[in-house]
Structures are given as structure tokens and as C-alpha cells.
Design the sequence.
């Protein structure tokens, strides 16, 4: 089970919203990167050196191109969502935000 940081009924989600390399979409074989509570806390505190060291030790094979633009999004607990991307720019897309078409 993936560890998640939850505050006030919201789950912290890590993604990279700038064009270039994605954080989650470029590392789909490492689903823990989406929620890793240690990374969230260090990002909030601006302790990027700790994240860099941690990544080297815990995720040595991960591509970290999206690290420079890493952002925390907050999604309500239990909400179905995905990280979508266009040209490397990731964004959070919830089921409710998609304009579904019925045949």
C-alpha cells in the first residue's frame, strides 16, 4: 500500500506542471513517487537537497527531469483522478472535470 500525506481531507499529489519532463508520467513504474510523504514535506520546507539525496538512495533508477518544477497538488480523499500531460507539462485531472460523452 502506498503511503500518502493527508491533511484536512486532502491527499498530497506530486506532479510537474511545467513543459519539459514529467515527474509522474515519466516514471509510471514507480507509483509511490506520486504520493511520497517525505518528498512532500521536504518540498514544502524547501529542502531540495534532502529530496535529491533521498531520490538517489530510494529511487536510484528514476528519471528526475521533472524535479525542478515539482509541485504539490491537493486532491480530496477518495477522488478518482489521473496525472495527464501535454508536452511534459503534467496536470491533475479528476473524473468530475472530464466532459464525458455518452453514446
Sequence:
Amino acid at each position: 500500500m502506498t503511503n500518502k500525506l493527508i491533511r484536512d481531507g486532502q491527499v498530497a499529489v506530486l506532479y510537474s506542471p511545467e513543459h519539459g519532463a514529467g515527474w509522474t508520467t515519466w516514471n509510471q513504474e514507480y507509483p509511490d513517487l506520486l504520493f511520497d510523504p517525505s518528498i512532500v514535506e521536504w518540498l514544502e520546507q524547501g529542502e531540495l537537497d534532502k529530496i535529491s539525496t533521498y531520490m538517489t538512495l530510494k529511487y536510484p533508477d528514476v528519471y528526475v527531469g521533472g524535479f525542478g518544477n515539482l509541485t504539490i497538488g491537493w486532491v480530496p480523499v477518495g477522488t478518482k483522478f489521473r496525472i495527464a500531460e501535454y508536452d511534459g507539462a503534467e496536470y491533475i485531472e479528476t473524473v468530475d472535470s472530464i466532459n464525458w460523452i455518452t453514446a
Remarks:
- The helical segments are 37-45, 48-58.
- The mean pLDDT is 90.
- The chain has one domain: 6-97.
